[in-house]
């Protein structure tokens, strides 16, 4: 009973290949033999077990209650190291991860996380936010234009439901269903805003609180959850202002994206572009359009805004990318011409598993301060990840909304409004209420307040990106203005791109004195920007694919007295000549107040000028929030101009603390000027990593290469990480890529054999650095085992002994393997005579194998003796021994029964149950 399927992603470092050396990856690794068990001296934590039949071991975690189907990936970790993404069972509680070459002794400090949030256990003092009280930020001054006010247009609403489409990698077709809300009677063509919801349950049983599922299509008696109807208020606001809107359903993707290596990003992009293609058809041929489209104003597909929530955010980002830089045809679910232009995206609490934003498409990312799903606020990378990648003219804005959760931007995910059962994703603990996010807290928004604020900022993006109204830009670009329609929400913003220039970036060879240059992702607390013991987290340091990254840095300032300057010196002088102000992105610990700095710059003639002072307060935060988020602080450059400083050659930036003590992190600083830049996408090379599956073969050695497609135009740079999941480490190299080139060349050497083993995957991950885009960021070569599983038998070695001696059985295989083989055996009740008791065996042995104690005395079969035996690679057998103890009591012969079982502890059919007998000592 051995499952021959993939158990664990395994890769070895082959960076030598990227450097041009002949180094090759080895497809198998040898292991030291040893007898291991899930009930050994270091048992797994409660809720965990090692499961599976024979060699196909799985690490299984069962949650105390169902885990809601959300957008963040559920991940198994050992400490900070990623083990993998487990497969969810239909019950919503059980998660399974194939283990493969990972040995049990490495399964220490096990954790289940989703976007950095622990699911398996509450963190110690989990609601600790420090000694300071979380306070609601003061309201910002009102902006001159409020995009949250309804417009003058009447609206028309209706649905279309077309034939479903097939998407690559998905067995079940995906629906083409959408809700249209559009202005009625508007003249001319009107810009189009398309909404895509995130990952959520797909079906529900009306009248039942528990009858939700991730099935597709829905079973009899169930209805589809109408997630796409959750943005009707947003759509009505936009339609009243003259925009055509459509919200599309993606339940068919949600039900199947757990199988997709990219979490469904490419499938969602394909679905978005399928809908846009239909709208292009209907614009050209109005008579062929559904009734609601014919009744609505004509859509202008040269002005398209894509709005995505959660995984829908990552999906519309990919759709914007695919519209500019076509994906590999084999991966794409839309292959027609691009007859639209995406002018911008709005990303609401988005995922970005690939950390691959589109640098030349403007974006607004809403970051909910009380997000309980994508709780690490990884969507910040839609801003940070664009720096230096392309021309830098597209505005990328982050909008931090204090007190907003993940779900309430969608009314169909909101309790009291949704057709199906719905919850507050942040969750509450009556015993330990969160000081920031518990409903009723001063900083927490109600569902109605949150949805209204969200609609206002979606409308701001539409007005800026589609209508070119620069008057709303101060709501989005860090200028510190508010939209009264969003009150009482406290909303803070920062941005990169647009009319910013220069750029004091911690990366790229900058030198730092008086402070520490730190790394966003590093296992060493002395190197990492935030100590892992810090309560709370930073969106700027959200985890990607590796436990250590190159090129993601910040400047960490820590002081105990005012006056010591931190100096950042870029690799070459910067020009701030056309800027009005210097804009810094700085964050301080949550709930702190009154952190002050003087800001100074120096030119190439060593003239130093203090521009002015800035002050910043920390965001409201707790251990459950990602509140270490940078606020935009600006100082005028007028002092430098008056002093005759050469703003064309600025050589350094200094921050001098003026508060008595404190801590702060500088993300970057830019020259800022008002206005909105014209955006033209650069012609860039695109990198997509594929996956090839090969058979290992019976003999010989063959060399394969990980498939990487480089398309597009021009030349750019990417960073390639070669992943080793056994160690958790990765090695990386900066690589120059050009269309059609093979510069990302990762060879894998596969040795054939006739021994049963695991499938083994050799993976790489790729990230854009400069003048490049990355589509599918991770892939590799999977080597499939093609040898039959060994036959396992259980036989007696010493099954009739005198008390004080040892009963022994042998678990044997008919052939050796290259991997650990695991097989459970179970002690069963005897069917006749007297059964050995818990006091007839060695107490240390009983504790080691069952975790039980001899008292009170009871039959041995009542002691939970279900044991997983391990036959290590290269061996063909292992013995199971039961040491008995001698007593002074005269008694008849006693016995025990032992059987091979399946992974549910049921004896295997057609296999003998063996009996061992212990005789009284004469």
Please characterize this protein's 3D structure.
By secondary structure, this protein is mostly beta strands. It contains ten helices and 52 strands. The strands form eleven sheets. Strands 11-12-17-13-18-19-20-21-22 form a nine-stranded mixed β-sheet, sandwiched between helices. Strands 1, 35, 38, 39, 41 and 43 form a six-stranded mixed β-sheet that branches. Helix 2 (232-240) packs across helix 8 (447-465) and helix 4 (265-284) crosses helix 6 (311-324).
Distance between the termini: 42 Å
Cα radius of gyration in angstroms: 31 Å
**β-strand number:** 52
Low-confidence stretches: 1-42, 123-131
Biggest β-sheet description: 9 strands, mixed
Judged by helices, strands and strand pairing, the structural class is mainly beta
What percentage of the residues does DSSP assign to strands (E)? 25-35%
Shape: globular
The number of helices is 10
Mean pLDDT: 90
Q: Give the % helix.
A: under 10%
Strand order of the largest sheet: 11-12-17-13-18-19-20-21-22
């Amino acid at each position: 009973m051995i499952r021959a399927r993939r158990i664990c992603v395994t890769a070895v470092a082959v960076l030598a290949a990227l450097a041009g050396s002949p180094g090759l990856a080895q497809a198998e690794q040898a292991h030291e033999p040893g007898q291991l068990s899930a009930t050994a001296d270091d048992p797994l934590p409660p809720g965990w077990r090692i499961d599976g039949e024979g060699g196909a071991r799985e690490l299984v975690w069962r949650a105390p209650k169902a885990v809601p189907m959300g957008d963040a990936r559920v991940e198994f970790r050992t400490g900070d190291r990623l083990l993998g993404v487990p497969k969810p069972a239909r019950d919503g509680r059980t998660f399974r991860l194939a283990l493969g070459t990972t040995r049990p002794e490495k399964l220490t400090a096990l954790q289940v996380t989703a976007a950095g949030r622990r699911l398996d256990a509450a963190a110690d003092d989990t609601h600790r936010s420090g000694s300071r009280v979380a306070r609601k930020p003061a309201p910002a001054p009102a902006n001159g234009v409020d995009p949250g006010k309804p417009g003058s247009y009447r609206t028309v609403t209706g649905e279309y439901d077309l034939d479903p489409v097939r998407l690559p990698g998905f067995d079940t077709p995906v629906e083409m269903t959408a809700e249209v809300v559009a202005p009625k009677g508007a003249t001319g063509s009107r810009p189009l805003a398309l909404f895509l919801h995130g990952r959520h349950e797909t079906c529900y049983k009306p009248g039942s609180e528990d009858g939700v599922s991730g099935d597709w299509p829905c079973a009899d008696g169930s209805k589809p959850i109408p997630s796409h109807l959750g943005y009707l208020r947003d759509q009505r606001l936009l339609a009243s202002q003259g925009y055509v809107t459509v919200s599309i359903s993606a339940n068919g993707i949600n039900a199947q994206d757990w199988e997709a290596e990219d979490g469904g990003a490419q499938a969602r992009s394909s679905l978005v572009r399928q809908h846009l293609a239909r709208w292009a058809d209907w614009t050209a041929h109005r008579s062929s359009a559904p009734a609601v489209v014919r009744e609505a104003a004509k859509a202008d597909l040269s002005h398209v805004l894509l709005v995505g929530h959660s995984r829908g955010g990552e999906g519309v980002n990919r759709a914007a990318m695919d519209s500019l830089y076509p994906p590999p045809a084999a991966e794409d679910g839309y292959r027609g011409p691009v007859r639209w232009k995406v002018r911008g995206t709005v990303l609401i609490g988005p995922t970005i598993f690939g950390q691959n934003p589109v640098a030349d498409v403007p974006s607004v990312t809403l970051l909910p301060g009380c997000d309980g799903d994508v709780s690490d606020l990884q969507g910040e990378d839609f801003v940070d990840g664009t720096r230096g990648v392309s021309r830098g003219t597209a505005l990328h804005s982050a909008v931090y909304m204090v007190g907003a959760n993940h779900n309430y931007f969608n009314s169909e995910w909101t309790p009291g409004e949704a057709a199906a059962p719905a919850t507050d994703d942040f969750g509450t603990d009556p015993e330990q209420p969160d000081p920031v996010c518990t409903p009723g807290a001063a900083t927490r928004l109600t569902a109605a307040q949150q949805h209204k604020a969200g609609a206002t900022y979606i409308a701001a993006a539409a007005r800026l990106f589609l209508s070119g109204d620069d008057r709303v830009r101060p709501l989005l670009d860090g200028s510190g203005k508010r939209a009264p329609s969003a009150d009482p929400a406290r909303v803070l913003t920062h941005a990169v791109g647009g009319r910013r220039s220069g750029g004091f970036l911690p990366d790229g060879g900058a030198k730092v004195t008086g402070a520490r240059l730190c790394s966003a992702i590093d296992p060493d607390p002395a190197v990492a920007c935030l100590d892992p013991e810090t309560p709370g987290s930073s969106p700027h340091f959200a985890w990607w694919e590796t436990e250590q990254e190159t090129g993601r840095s910040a400047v960490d300032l820590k002081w105990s007295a005012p006056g010591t300057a931190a100096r950042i010196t870029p690799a070459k002088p910067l020009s701030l000549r056309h800027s009005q102000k210097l804009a810094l992105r700085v964050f301080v610990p949550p709930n702190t107040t009154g952190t002050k700095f003087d800001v100074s710059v120096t030119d190439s003639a060593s003239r130093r000028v203090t521009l002015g002072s800035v002050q910043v307060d920390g965001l409201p935060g707790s251990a459950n929030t990602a509140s270490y988020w940078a606020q935009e602080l600006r100082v005028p450059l007028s002092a430098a101009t008056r002093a005759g400083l050469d703003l064309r050659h600025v050589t350094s930036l200094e921050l001098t603390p003026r508060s008595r003590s404190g801590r702060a992190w500088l993300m970057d600083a830019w020259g800022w000027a008002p206005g909105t830049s014209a955006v033209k996408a650069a012609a860039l090379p695109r990198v997509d990593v594929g996956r090839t599956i090969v058979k290992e073969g019976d003999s010989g050695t063959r060399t394969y290469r990980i498939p990487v497609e480089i398309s597009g135009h021009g030349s750019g740079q990417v960073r390639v990480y070669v992943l080793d999941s056994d160690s958790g480490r990765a090695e990386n190299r900066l690589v120059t890529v050009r269309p059609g080139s093979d510069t990302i060349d990762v060879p894998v050497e596969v040795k054939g054999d006739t021994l049963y083993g695991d499938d083994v995957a050799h993976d790489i991950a790729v990230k854009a650095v400069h003048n490049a885009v990355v589509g599918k960021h991770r892939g590799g070569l999977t080597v499939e085992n093609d040898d039959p599983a060994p036959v396992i038998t259980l036989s007696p070695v010493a099954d009739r002994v005198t008390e004080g001696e040892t009963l022994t059985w042998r678990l044997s295989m008919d052939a050796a393997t290259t991997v650990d083989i695991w097989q459970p055996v179970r002690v069963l009740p005897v069917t006749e005579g007297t059964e050995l008791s818990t006091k007839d065996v060695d107490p240390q042995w009983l504790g080691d194998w069952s975790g039980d104690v001899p008292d009170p005395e009871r039959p041995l079969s009542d002691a939970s003796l279900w044991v997983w035996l391990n036959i290590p690679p290269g061996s063909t057998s292992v013995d199971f021994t039961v040491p008995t103890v001698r007593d002074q009591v005269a008694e008849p012969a006693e016995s025990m029964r032992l059987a091979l079982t399946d992974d549910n502890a049921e004896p295997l059919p057609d296999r003998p149950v063996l009996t061992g007998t212990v005789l009284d000592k004469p």
